[in-house]
Amino acid sequence: MDNEQKNIEEQDKLKSGFVAILGRPNVGKSTLMNHLIGMKIAAVSKRAQTTRKRIQTVYTDDRGQIIFLDTPGVNKAETKLGEFMLDSATETLKTADMIMWIIEPSNYIGMGEKSIVEMISKVPSIPLALVINKCDTATDDVIDGTEKLYSDYLSESGVNLTKVFRVSATEGTGQDSLMSGIYDILPYGPMYFDEDTVTDETEREIAAEFIREKCLRNLDKEIPHGIAVVIDKMRERPDGSLVDIEATIICEKESHKGIIIGKKGAMLKKIGIQSRKSIEEMLGIQVNLRLWVKVRPDWRNKTSYMSEYGYKK
Which pLDDT tens digit goes with each residue over 254-272? Predict the structure, then answer.
């Protein structure tokens, strides 16, 4: 048997496919995905709109390859950016081999969850896994009730539920069972990426997301929703000693700019220190990070600005 024939037979034994991750804001989609692939790629915070566009990550082992498609939290669109986020989630379903819907323990189904069921019902042929996250925060009785509530609602809505999983993204429980279950559901097929690939996001894109994440974590109230981050320059020095990065934080109001900078530049310095640490961990090299703040009024409703800041259809 020649090597080519052997490789073909080995490929026939592998599972592979695209897994769309759905859920309302703050249910832990990005946190769970980061843990499953073993690397932080997606920004994480407790605020809505942390994930604004689809982020693709890749997990490969001897069973095959899983391509996770982390989507923005499904919520009512109030700006053109919100419409972009909702469209991003909807379009992702059309390319998926499996849907992984992340929920929290709960005793009721809200309008956001019902909207997700409506989205899922439009792609009835795609297998659906319901993942109950944050199981460390609830009793077994509550989790049992959540599973029955959602299973019954999906059945009443005409949606076929393939499997239910119980996990805690922060505690790490149930994740091995979830990964095995995903492989069970995915079809046999070739690997789409090299085994060393973890994401198709560029280092510039990930760096921008890390900076935006630190803004989300440090700033109050409505300000983070009006923030975008652009990497203006990212260059390694010839001697390989460090990477120089210049980035601009975009906000919508002059008053917000003052808050982001802070008294004597304290807040911007704090955001910069935290961002630099995360970027250095990603790159494995020292980083010299310089941040600026610019005002672009109502940029979330202007497609030209949205496209410039990376939110392109």
Answer: 999 999 999 999 999 999 9
